């Protein structure tokens, strides 16, 4: 190792490169050239090779996030089963199927007849207001379907359709309520599927406004609050809490009626000592 001095600074030749004797850093190119001319001229050839550079710092290993690892593709979704005709064994889904429904305390033999009666009343009270009626149709149909499927047998039949997509695709079907040839808004089918999803829930998990609507329209012959909910403690607590909150808007005879029905259900249910107070068949 050779140490030399230039312009008051000391430099060291290590056999490959010049470096500052104090900092051990490579000097600028201009200083390196002067040092070569002064002290290494006899070593240089006519075609000198490339100047060696100081070794670079080792780079930090690059972090590879787990997301970059290719995950196996998800399995393909299961095909959706479809129920496409409200006829034969599925005729109970049609709005004109025989089934007692209640609207504003009056009984009708089918959803269609109750719907048409409401339409006639609207036309008498609000003549010429067709757009207003069009906006009311889905909410009215939702109420009528809720009343229709309050009957245990019909409710069980609707739940038995499972997760099937419901639509009536007959060619002559109304394109607003149905889906003729697969085209149309399928309003009735969507309302039926919404109601099915609601009925599949445990009653105490329903939204407050849904339970209050059931209480508002409840009749012994139109049991919108199902017996299973009356017999189950969790559901009964929700019902009584909401009745206390909205009792000014509800029929004062409602709670005695519900209590009597609950007592009859519990008396008819055989109990095992230590078993929870739950109506059979509940989830």
Structure description:
By secondary structure, the protein is mostly helical. It folds into three domains: 2-39, no CATH class; 79-200, Orthogonal Bundle (Tetracycline Repressor, domain 2); 203-283, no CATH class. Helix content is 39%, strand content 8%. It contains nine helices and seven strands. The protein has helices spanning 29-39, 111-125, 130-148, 152-159, 187-200, 208-216, 227-231, 233-246, 254-268; strands at 2-6, 9-13, 18-20, 82-83, 101-103, 106-108, 165-166. The strands form three sheets. It has a three-stranded antiparallel beta sheet, covered by helices on one side. The chain has a two-stranded parallel sheet with strand order 4-7. The chain has a two-stranded antiparallel sheet with strand order 5-6. Strand 5 (101-103) and strand 6 (106-108) form a beta hairpin. Helix 3 (130-148) runs parallel beside helix 5 (187-200). It is elongated. The model is unreliable at 276-283 (pLDDT under 50).
The percentage helix is 25-40%
Q: What radius of gyration results from the CA coordinates? A: 42 Å
Strand portion, in percent? 5-15%
Structural class: mainly alpha
Strand order of the largest sheet: 1-2-3
Task: Domain count, please report it.
Answer: 3
Oligomer: single chain
Level-1 CATH class name of the largest domain: Mainly Alpha
């Amino acid at each position: 190792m050779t140490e030399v001095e230039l312009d008051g600074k000391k430099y060291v030749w290590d056999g490959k490169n010049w470096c500052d004797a104090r900092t051990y850093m490579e000097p600028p190119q201009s200083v390196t050239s002067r040092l070569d001319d002064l002290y290494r001229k006899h070593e240089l050839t006519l075609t000198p090779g490339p100047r060696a550079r100081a070794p670079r710092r080792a780079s930090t290993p690059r972090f590879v996030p787990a997301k970059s690892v290719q995950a196996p593709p998800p399995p393909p979704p299961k095909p959706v089963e479809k129920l496409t005709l409200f006829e034969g064994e599925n005729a109970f889904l049609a709005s004109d199927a025989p089934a007692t429904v209640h609207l504003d305390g009056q009984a009708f033999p089918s959803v269609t007849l109750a719907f048409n009666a409401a339409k006639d009343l609207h036309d008498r009270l609000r003549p010429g207001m067709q757009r207003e009626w069009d906006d009311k149709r889905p909410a009215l149909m939702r109420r009528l379907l809720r009343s229709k499927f309050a009957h245990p047998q019909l409710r069980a039949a609707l739940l038995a359709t499972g997760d099937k997509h419901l639509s009536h695709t007959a060619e002559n079907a109304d394109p607003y309520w149905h889906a003729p040839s697969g085209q149309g808004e399928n309003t009735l089918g969507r309302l039926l599927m919404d109601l099915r999803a609601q009925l599949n829930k445990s009653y105490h998990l329903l939204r407050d406004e849904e339970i209050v609507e059931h209480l508002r329209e409840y009749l012994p012959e139109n049991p919108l609050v199902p017996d299973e909910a009356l017999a189950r403690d969790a559901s009964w607590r929700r019902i009584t809490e909401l009745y206390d909150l909205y009792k000014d808007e509800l029929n004062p005879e409602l709670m005695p009626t519900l209590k009597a029905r609950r007592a009859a259900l519990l008396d008819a249910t055989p109990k095992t000592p230590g078993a929870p107070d739950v109506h059979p068949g509940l989830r």
